[in-house]
Amino acid sequence: MNCLEEIAIKLKFIRQVLEETESAGVRLRGTDWFAWATAGGSNTVLLAAETGVAEVLITAVDAWILTDEIEAQRLTDEQLPSQNTPERLYQLLINPWAEGSKRESFVRDATSGGTVLSDRPTHHEFPLPRSLIHQRRVLLPTELERYRQVGRLASEAMADVLAQAQPNWTEYQLAGAGAEALWARGLHPALTLAAGDRRLPLYRHPLPTGEAIGRQAMLVFCARGSGLIVSLTRFVCFGNLSAQDRTLHQAISEIEVVALNHSQVNTPLNQVYDALATAYEQHGFPNAIREHHQGGTAGYGAREIVATAETRDRLEATMVLAWNPSIPGAKIEDTFVLNPDNSLENLSFDPQFPHIEIAGRRRPIPLER
């Protein structure tokens, strides 16, 4: 399967939705949905924005990329698949950048004023149905190939930064080095969290500060490439880990095993969550399940579904998972794809990074320098 075949499959999904809902069009504005619909293209300019500088419009017979005259040439040259070949699946609709009303008029004409579904609906539009949202979460072979590439690059960036970090670096410097390493590999630093020795046990989401990291540090990435997000967490320690810290990291690895072992096809996410709650209690951390979200499925969002005690969505083959168990002072996180045989492929693991084997899986441990 190539990118054009992937897009053709997705257009077929969307047109089935149009038929089932008796709708006239689907309009996709988000950076996540744009990447999905274009086989990894990006409409992003402002990283902090949920929507970008182009959108997708699909009807029963046609498909367009809607953008303005500022962005059209760059998107055609660099982001839209095979726009210069006869096989192109999207037409390009370009409006003057200061005349957005012309785009809206085009959409009304293209859909004959009928019902329009959207990922970010306006007051004239309606949300996407669950069937299409679910379809995005089950990845195709070409998507998984892109995911493997993103995971490899993200894990290499992480290892390089922690190999260079110094105890007198501030958390800002550590996070900045992480962002630089991701950009250097063509990845968007969607998230870079950093905590030094003092703040590590205090906060689950430690936005970096100007404080020196000291004896040890945690670095967290959500790295986006081709629209797909890889999440991973690693630690560095300058000198040897203390016995207490070693015990904490061992405990969190054993807790994570429970989530990974329960991650099987047709398992509801709340069942994994409940198993994690039990594991925390057994290891002496009964409140940890409530002190941080535990992760869930991933893909075009860092988390597509966050697992809770009430989440009844079931896992399927080729869904991606990013569990996030943590206790004060220790956390573990990687991004996995669930295979049809219930095996888990780690998309973000660097075999050169220090690791141990737990329950037949290689899991990271802190880098001791």
Domain count: 2
Class inferred from helices and paired strands: alpha+beta
Query: In oligomeric terms, what are we looking at?
Result: single chain
State the CATH superfamily name of the largest domain. Creatinase/methionine aminopeptidase superfamily
CATH class descriptor name of the largest domain? Alpha Beta
H/E element order? HEHEEHEHEEHHHEEEHHHEEEEEEEEEE
Shape: globular
Number of helices: 10
Residue share in helices? 25-40%
Report how far the terminal alpha carbons are from each other: 44 Å
Radius of gyration of CA atoms, rounded to a whole number: 22 Å
CATH fold-level assignment of the largest domain: Creatine Amidinohydrolase
> How many strands appear in the DSSP assignment?
19
Name the CATH architecture of the largest domain: Alpha-Beta Complex
Q: Overall pLDDT, averaged?
A: 96
The profile of the biggest β sheet is: 6 strands, mixed
- The strand line-up of the biggest sheet is 4-3-2-1-5-6
Task: Give the strand content.
Answer: 15-25%
Topology:
Elements: H1 3-21, E1 25-30, H2 31-37, E2 51-58, E3 63-68, H3 72-78, E4 91-95, H4 100-110, E5 116-118, E6 126-127, H5 130-137, H6 141-164, H7 171-184, E7 188-196, E8 216-225, E9 228-237, H8 243-262, H9 269-282, H10 288-291, E10 295-298, E11 305-306, E12 320-323, E13 326-327, E14 330-331, E15 336-338, E16 344-346, E17 355-358, E18 361-364, E19 367-368
Parallel strand pairs: 1-5, 3-4, 5-6, 9-19
Antiparallel strand pairs: 1-2, 2-3, 7-8, 8-9, 10-11, 10-12, 12-15, 13-14, 15-16, 17-18
Helix pairs in contact: 6-7, 8-9
